[in-house]
Amino acid sequence: MSYLNTGILALAAYLAAYLASCQTPLSHWLGVQIDLRPALLVYCGLRTEWATLALVSVLGGLWFDALSANRLGISILPLFVIAFLVHLNRGLILREQQYAQFVLGIAASAAAPVLTILLMVGVGQVPLIGWGSIWQWLIMALVGGALTPALFWVLERFCRAFTYPAVSESSFRPDREIKRGRV
Amino acid sequence: MFRRPQYLALMAVVLLVLVVLSLPIQTATQLKLALGGFFLPLIGLTSSSRSVARQAEGTVVPRRMLLDQIDDLKRENERLRLQLMQSNLVWQENLTLRQAFGWKQQSRWDLRLARVTLRDPANWWRTIQIDLGQRDGVVTNMPVMTSEGLVGKVQRVGLWSSQVVLIGDPNCRVSAVVEDEKDQDGGIIQADASSILDPSIVELTFLGGQSKAKAGALVVTSGQGGVFPKGIPIGKVIETRSVGFGMSTEARVKLSANFKHLDYVWVKFP
């Protein structure tokens, strides 16, 4: 993974924080602000190494909290924990399958707000929570899950555009070449 | 095991989070404002692309429709001019009577229009960002309203933008009175957790046990607390219920301002 790809993922975290605070027709219709950062961290967990993963969760968390009334830094840890667990188990996950991406997206988008609220309550903040929050939580999880394969598709293309293509292995081996003529 | 890169990364992130969370509130606020500054180019880009779209829309709107709109606006302008004239007469009369009785003179509100740039990305807070900041003279706790009624107050001020906490957020409580009651029973407007999906509903608590607040009664700011001036409309009572074995009354209030379509708000300067 090149530095440029890390930069693209940091930029994606920046855009995800901005989009979450925009009033889009979808969020207006559903009455829920949609957060794409958990889906992004699922991508990072499956495709990148530790430094990128930590950087994206730190930047995504800080930018999100800067636009929100959240305590600064409160949403970093939930994002990192999600990416950490995905990365630890990535050998067991069929990462190319859209179904797997969808399920991981749902799980991540459902876990991130719950962990954030638990942390907030732990540090003494009292957020606005009621029965309606269950509807918001379900919508966040479902929309986050549905957008995860799309996010994978977009980021794969972006990252591929900025990296060298993998060298294709040839069946020809120079050490097995038969030298003809006089030596 | 703990020397593996993944555990080192985990420890580094946990350490960073602990450091950021233990920052003093002032420092954390400054850091928030600095990080929020990263979004200024995007906010500018969004607003300029909106104006470009509006210009493009202007080129395709039929001339007939524009003429009709101008006609409507002229009529509205005439009506508002008449209202302003009447209001000025009443204002002068009021002033004369105040002087005659020696009452404290009320000054006209100094209001500045602000554009709503962003909303709170978290679903558990109700805040917005506006495009007025320190350079425009905004300070914390300034009341924010629309022509329909009170919206909230300024919570955090940056150089170019400010964060406004809306009525219905747990961090925004407003002292209010039900206007058509004879004894002007007052209470506190606060968040109503049962109406999370409808931001236009809040709760009026701590009304007296003998309160006669009825559905449809107007709720306005009481002027107590020193943040909101007296008499700003907040909303109308939908229903009331007695709590604590009749010791007090609570009312559900429908806010006058339309919180779903907040594009522009007025900030009241002192």
Features:
heterodimer, A: 183 residues, mainly alpha, Arp2/3 complex 21 kDa subunit ARPC3, elongated, B: 270 residues, alpha+beta, six-stranded antiparallel barrel, 4 helices
- End-to-end Cα distance of chain A, whole Å, is 44 Å
Which regions of chain B are unreliable across 5 or more consecutive residues at pLDDT < 50?
none
Average pLDDT reading of chain A: 90
Reported by name, the CATH topology of chain A is Arp2/3 complex 21 kDa subunit ARPC3
Portion of residues within helices of chain A: 55-70%
N-to-C CA distance of chain B: 61 Å
Q: What features would you describe in this structure?
A:
- The complex is a heterodimer of chains A (183) and B (270).
- With 183 residues, chain A is mainly alpha-helical.
- Chain A has a single domain (3-161), classed as Arp2/3 complex 21 kDa subunit ARPC3.
- In chain A, 66% of the residues lie in helices and 0% in strands.
- In chain A, helix 1 runs parallel beside helix 4 (50-67).
- The longest helix of chain A has 30 residues, at 132-161.
- Chain A starts with a helix and ends in a 22-residue tail after the last helix.
- The mean pLDDT of chain A is 90.
- In chain B, the strands form 2 sheets. In chain B, strands 1-2-5-4-3-12 form a 6-stranded antiparallel beta barrel.
- Chain B is built from 4 helices and 12 strands, in the order H-H-H-H-E-E-E-E-E-E-E-E-E-E-E-E.
- The termini of chain B are far apart.
- Chain B has helices at 5-21, 25-36, 40-60, 63-101, and strands spanning 110-119, 127-130, 143-145, 150-157, 162-166, 174-178, 186-190, 201-208, 218-221, 233-243, 248-255, 264-269.
- Chain B is an alpha+beta fold.
- Chain B is globular, with a radius of gyration of 24 Å.
- Chains A and B meet through helix 1, helix 4, helix 5, helix 6 and helix 7 of A and helix 1 and helix 2 of B.
Q: What's the SSE blueprint?
A:
The complex is a heterodimer of chains A (183) and B (270).
Chain A: H1 3-20, H2 25-30, H3 37-47, H4 50-67, H5 76-88, H6 98-122, H7 132-161
Helix pairs in contact in A: 1-4, 3-4, 3-5, 3-6, 3-7, 4-5, 5-6, 6-7
Chain B: H1 5-21, H2 25-36, H3 40-60, H4 63-101, E1 110-119, E2 127-130, E3 143-145, E4 150-157, E5 162-166, E6 174-178, E7 186-190, E8 201-208, E9 218-221, E10 233-243, E11 248-255, E12 264-269
